[in-house]
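User: Hello! I'm new to structural biology and keep hearing that structure can be predicted from sequence alone. Could you demonstrate with Gliding motility-associated C-terminal domain-containing protein? Please show me the input and the output so I can see what each looks like.

Assistant: Of course. The first part below is the input, the amino acid sequence of Gliding motility-associated C-terminal domain-containing protein. The second part is the output, the predicted structure written as tokens.
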Amino acid sequence: MFQTKKQMAFKTGVLIIFMACFSSVFAQNEANVWLLNNGQQLNFDSGEPELIEFEGQTKFASTICDENGNLLLYSDGRKIWNKNHEVIVNGDDLIDEDSWIQSYPYFLPYPNKDGWYIIIYEEMIYWLLGGTYGNTLYYGTINTNAQNGKGELVTEKVFIHDNYHSGPTIAGYCNNSYYWLAIDRNENVISEINRDRIYFYKIDENGLNEEPVINGELGIGSSGGYKFSPNGDKLFFLVGGDIYSDGNYVTDFNFKTGELYNFRRLTSMYNSRNEFSPNSRFFYFFDDSVLCQMDARYTSAANFINSTDTVLTLPPPAGQSNNGWDLRLASDGRIYFRYVDVKTGEHKLGRIRFPNRKGKLCIPELDVLTFSIQNIRFPKFMSGFFREKLPEPLDEVFPDAGPDQQVCPGDIISLGKENQPEAFYTWFPENFITEYFSPQTDLKAPPHFDEPETNTFTLRATDGNCWLNFDEVEITRYPKNRPLEIAGSWSVCPYVEKVNYWTGNNYYDYEPVWLVEGGEIVSRQGTDSIKINWWDTNPDAYVAVYSENEYGCISDTTYFPVRINVELLTEKPNGPDELCIADAKNVTYQIHNTNGSVYVWTAEGGEILNGQGTNKVTVNWLQEGINSLVVEETSTTIDTVCYGESEPLQVEIINDSIDIALLNVSFNNDDNVELEYYSEKLVNHKHTLYILAENEDTGREMQVHVSAEYDGSTYYFPSSAELAPETIRLKVENLCGELFISNPQQTIVVRERNTAEIDRALLVWNSNKYWDNNRVEYEVWHTSERDGTWERIAGGISANQFDYFNEGFSLEHYFRIKANNLDKGVSSWSNTLRVVFENTIEIPDVFTPNDDGFNDVWDIQNIRFHEPERVTVYNRHGQKIYESRGSYVPWDGTFKGEINQGTYFYEIVFDAQNIEYGQVTILQ
């Protein structure tokens, strides 16, 4: 990416250029005329913008002026006119008549060819087809002196680029001796790329370089709003279509190589409401109705965003949140914008008078001009027309970032060198350094542990627009050891000897360096454990420790205060202060041991099993509730007896046995299983309740955590894929991890058993086997609609089955069983069973009308679901002997009161297209 002096690159010598950094000279007048979409021009010839009627051939167009600010050429993307409003030769058909344009053209002075210009223009033949945009970007060349000064389009429709979301942006360099054009390409639909990429084309005295520089660093789904800064060293654009890359970006642009670097991702969507200052330092944007300024010199997104300053707040129009549009830099060095005067409702022109100044010193101004229409549009120009020129050139500088260095955490070192030549300097990344924009800066190494880490810092020097050089320095940050922890006695008797202190986290076996105040180390300096002889009474004594690693980096020093006094502050016992009664045996408690001390333990509510006299004991707790544990310490030295008593440790012994009864289980209308239970001690957030369900058919067991309030009822969703009777229990886990299981209950599941009869449904169900010793009766409930009203169709049933005969006109039926436990006074509902009866018509081919009660009539099954217009029966002579119209009445076989055995023919007419023919036989 960067070509540095260490790489011996960019040794191009000293360039004499006309750019600088400290006082503004705006001498480029090529953008003095702005053609607006209301038939007027915004003209900057006088030094102040003037609205003047435009007498040309189009309302809105791109323009370019000569070096004195006089209109030279203008184009609407279809034609090119000269200053006399004549179409130049070959300039009348830039694109086909049926095509259209999305972005208006750019005019560029042709490098090193006086009187020649380049036009960048587009043609769109369709919007989007097959994931591809139908736009193409071309360039042509214009000789304004040709044809006796009329001008001529010499070359045209030279292909540059196609299939893009947004139009290009162009910047000029080194007095417009070359240009860079930036544009995206819609490549996220190409499988091997899967992202849009940004293309950079260089244009110089040889024309267009057809080999672009391509940047595919971001995951771009779509992009737009491309805008170069006036110096061309920064680029703004918007990104969408990728959650990891979406946002707005300001990046640095290497105008020597065509590469992007230092991506600053922003979160607000600024769209076209942004602009750079003439010196390219400041970035302005409207956020709703607030005009903000950011310092674009910062290369990190965090510092860039933190530099945001509000310079103007506009009141928004009624019902809107936005006010302030089309920030646009002009040739007078000021930034102009449109806004609505909410008092008058007029659309006006405002400006930033001194955009190179920081904060409100930039002086925003309102009411510069008033527009006659609302939606005024400003044209676009090559950004280099607006850059700040410098009164004196800057000689090319090759920066010196200094030698590579190594640092320990907390060290401060110097990068770069003093007294480097005048230039615009920038350090990046901005981590750990103090001066970002000077040739020399300090770096303060942050805390760092474990392994060495090498960071590269780059120093950039540039004049802003013509030369650009880099140098790099590598800084190796050595780690320091993590602080060591100290354990031991913090209250000791005067002149006590050989008291132990130690560190327990020296995982890398560094050699500790121990320090002591108020005593002396008598053994094992340099190890993880030492012994100290303490001296006379001292409230400010301490033990300290640090370590040094192989890189010479020293850890932070850890201090451990020690109180030397005859009145010992004995440590409160350490150990569990809350126990379940089942875990209250053989419990260990301890404090730090001090050499020479004797410890007497008292357990109120318990007994000391072993360890009495030492710093560590084992206790049996004997009673539930609040108990206490106290330790007394005695230390005897040569001439002193010291004593101390600890604060009591309150130990709660918990008896958390729980009884829980499962009272009933029952399906509700949504086929969820509801449970009713009772427990006197069950408490939310203290106990954990589970539902245990075992499928009686598959044996599959399921456990469901109950997260709702423990109010005596809950429910769960049984598996509809394997619905079967389930044995259900409740399980409770108490604070001690003990488990308590309720009594079981069983759900009642109703099913349909297959029968050979079309209009019959045999309902069968299981009984709750845990009610086998109780008197239980069943009820059958029915509805013919899923959300219909239920009605009881049978009751007082002791069996586990019920025959239902479908005599109505509905094919779909729903059933539930209600089990009533007469002894316990509770009821349990079954699931909802859906039964669908067959509706196929079955026409008998024989019947026997002999009054034996079986098959006595010609009964057509299910004909009530397909009401015929008529049913007609004929004898073998074709004589009609029976007919039924409308609702079918089964034929009893008689004709004129007599029954004659034989075969007959029938015709059943449902409608004109559906007629059934057949024969039926009467047997006697």
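User: So the tokens describe the shape?

Assistant: Right, they're a compact way of writing down the 3D structure. Reading them back into a model, for example: The chain has one helix and 72 strands.
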